[in-house]
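User: I'm putting together notes for a lab meeting next week and I want to include a structural view of one of the chains we've been expressing. I don't have a solved structure, so I'd like a prediction I can at least talk through. The sequence is below, exactly as it appears in our construct file.
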Amino acid sequence: MRRLAITAVLLTSLLMSCAEEVTTSEPGVLDGVGRLPGYDFWAPVTLPDGGELELPMPEGGPVGPRVDGNRVLLVGDSILASTAKRYGNEMCEALKPLGWQVAVEAEPGRFAPFGVEVLERRIGAVWDVVFIYLGTNFDGNEESLRKQFVRMFEVTEGVETVVLTTGVFRNSQRTVNNVIKETAAQFDHVRVLDWSSVAKLKGVTGKDKIHLSDTGRSILAQTIARALDYAPYREASCLDPRFRDDTGINQQSTTTNP
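Assistant: Thanks for the context. Below is the predicted structure for the 258-residue chain, given as structure tokens.
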């Protein structure tokens, strides 16, 4: 019995060592462990109507293999906030098993200047990857929007940055997405993730065609998980946000304040 107990301890220690000292030889595979169930990024996602969705990738492929650390900051409005720990926690539940330390700094009803505020205050905490989902709230001032995105990308210079396009629930969102793509093209560290191609699919958003359904929140989290892939090492956690003012949710309308 003692020999069996010692063997079990050694086996447990070996498995823990494999989990802690992970390197990625190919997307979705842990060296010495193999592919983890439930994280086959190359498999399509099945939608409620039975259709299949190939998740989009940022330009240049997953960003995880290009960074040295595992801290990821996500900045956005209510679309992203709905996946935060104080709501459904879909984002952290998707990213934590991949080894990421996850901070979701998102609040309802926020416009692009919110992203500048968050990044200027939080960038000093040292992040390896930044995701930005803003522009759903747009007042029609294209020049101002462009300046805000340029400023966000200036603040994240030196950090791998992924910016998502917005759902096209009104014509002006095409302008927003064009601004996002054009400004991102000016910065070598910024890559675009085409969320608009996913948001238009049936079942991803609710009745207002803006905010995410339960399925949509899970798909957004999976999309970002695929864009990241595995972190270089596994000391994962769900970090507490500094920005969590949800009063804007009472001011939302289907036209201006998602």
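A couple of points you could mention at the meeting. Residues 2-20 form the longest helix (19 residues). Residues 99 and 190 are 22 Å apart (CA to CA).

User: Perfect, that's what I needed.
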